[in-house]
Amino acid sequence: MKQTIYKNIKTNQMKKTIFIVALILMGLSSNLSAQDNFQSSERFGGALNLGLGIGGYSYGYIGHTLPVLSVNYEFGVLRNFTLAPFLTFYSYTDGNYNAIVTPIGVKGTYYFDQLLHAGPRWDFYTAGSLGLNLVSTTWNAGYLGSRNYYTTADPLYLDFHLGTEYHFSNHIGAFLDLSTGVSTIGIAIH
């Protein structure tokens, strides 16, 4: 008897799950067909990019990646090229100190959409970032060791990127930016 009730509950849960998934898929398909009127201007720039990711450029002695917050604003310079001032933030704490690292600089991006014949919803790019690592280290009161060891992060910030963006509309997109230092996923506001 208990086994039959359990089987009925499982069957009902499965039916509900299939029904919900079907509704979501129908909603997405109607939403995508309604967005077929998307117009791409294929002008790059004028985008605020907000990203979360992992990395830890020039702080490799920590032994693992760290959560990262990144923001930049792209200005169109040439037809397929933008420059974006950026600000990135991550921090690290261990038993002896707290470090806050803030890379700032400029990211130059070249878009390959024309070369790759990308559709109007997709952007593909490569980029390079150049800037400075601003490091602030605070030591715990009881620490008696060397206070210079953990302040040796390279002040030069240099990063190479490969990324893509999908445009949900003319005003919002989602991006994935893979890089040699800090990789992010986020939202682009145009």
Q: Average pLDDT value? A: 78
Structural class: alpha+beta
Kindly give the count of domains.
2
List low-confidence stretches.
2-8, 28-39
Q: What is the level-2 CATH architecture name of the largest domain?
A: Beta Barrel
Query: Largest sheet, described in full?
Result: 8 strands, antiparallel, barrel
Main sheet: which strands, in order across? 1-2-3-4-5-6-7-8
Query: Could you name the CATH topology of the largest domain?
Result: Porin
Please report the total strand number as a whole number: 8
What is the helix content? 10-25%
N- and C-termini, Cα separation: 60 Å
Task: Determine the oligomeric state from the structure.
Answer: single chain
Strand content: over 45%
CATH C-level of the largest domain: Mainly Beta
Describe this structure as you would to a colleague.
The chain is α+β, with helices and mostly antiparallel strands. The protein folds into 2 domains: 2-34; 45-189, Porin (Beta Barrel). It is built from 2 helices and 8 strands. The chain has helices spanning 2-34, 113-116; strands spanning 47-55, 66-78, 81-93, 97-111, 122-139, 156-167, 172-179, 183-189. Strands 1-2-3-4-5-6-7-8 form an 8-stranded antiparallel barrel. A hairpin with a 4-residue loop joins strand 6 and strand 7. The longest helix is centred in the N-terminal third of the chain and has 33 residues, at 2-34. The protein is globular, with a radius of gyration of 23 Å.
